[in-house]
Amino acid sequence: MAQTSEITERLATRLKEERAARGLSLEALAGLSGVSRSMLSQIERGESSPTVASLWHLTRALGLDFSGLLDAGPDAQSPILQLMRSGAVPVMEQAENGVTIRILSPPEDVGATEVYELIFAQGGHLTSPPHKAGCTEILTVLDGTLDVSSGDAQEALSTGDTIRYRADLPHRIAAPGAAKALLVVKNP
To answer: Which domains does the chain possess?
Structure first.
């Protein structure tokens, strides 16, 4: 329970910091994220733990990676070795999209280079609006096949293939069958 409490407190603090840094009121963030103002207030006071769906909407609204809301902030020092056992890796389930996203990058890399493992069910897909200007993504298919599009360009990939594409355009990764991939997001 201590770890859950620590995560709730850290999330509360980071959400307040990120919202304030962007000059957003609770109402403005609620409008951008679709998470109610009262729920945001409860999360910021550490009185409620958000669902994965709520966290997903908040990170999109704030332009952050999921781990960006869980890091210890800009003054935290990193230890020499940071081991995260498989069961402790942050995971986002997108049941409606058929994708499981494992966050592999450390929190301090948010906004620079982010690394994800993507696990697609048959027919799973990730559809993303444009990221920051100059943002690129590098995708390597570990198993299966994936269809990738960025803007009007499209490409089919198989196991072992790697593609680099602009992520400052609307982009999509779709799996005709079950697939697994490694995604690196490079922000300018």
So the answer is: 2-69 (1.10.260.40), 89-186 (2.60.120.10)
